[in-house]
Amino acid sequence: MSAVFKTTHLLSYSFIFGATTYYSYIVSPKMFKVLDRDSFSTIQSAVFKQYFGLQALSGLILPLLAYKSGLKIGKLGYYSAGVSFIASLTNLLWLQPLCHDIKKQRQALDLEKPEDVVEDDFLRKQFGKYHGLSLLMNVIYSASLLTYGIRFGSLI
């Protein structure tokens, strides 16, 4: 049974690390460059709940699979998985919904009062602040997942 858990753990880690790095650092920047803002925003909004949900789930599943397979990932492995879980949960439950709401407020403002530069400037700054925090959480997630992988990789 241990071989099944080890294989599942390896494939799960490979999938989430590959998906995270590819989407965050290749796909998203490319879409940002080639799509108009509304199209880019629509795609990101459609993807983010599943994306951050998968990240959060990985922070729970990976250490559980390591434990079940008998891998001794130690404190570093468990701490890095915990950090990845907290960072992704922060994006999933707080920052992504907040950024989405601010974006909706800006869209409504554009329709109702397109000349209200002061309010738009305030919302733009709010979005920038929380989006920056979201990017930071994603970098923290990626770094903690890499740390987990280095620890895990040293055992196989």
Automatic annotation (TrEMBL):
Top-rank taxon: Eukaryota
Keywords of the record: Membrane, Transmembrane, Transmembrane helix
Cellular component GO terms held in the UniProt record: membrane
Spans through the membrane: 10-28, 48-67, 76-95, 130-150
Pfam families: DUF4149
UniProt main location, coarse: membrane
Protein location: Membrane
Domain TMEM205-like, first and last residues per copy: 11-107
Stored InterPro entries: TMEM205-like (IPR025423), Xanthocillin_Biosynth-Assoc (IPR053009)
PANTHER family named in the record: LATE EMBRYOGENESIS ABUNDANT PLANTS LEA-RELATED, LD23009P
Protein name stated in the entry: TMEM205-like domain-containing protein
Source organism of this protein record: Hanseniaspora guilliermondii
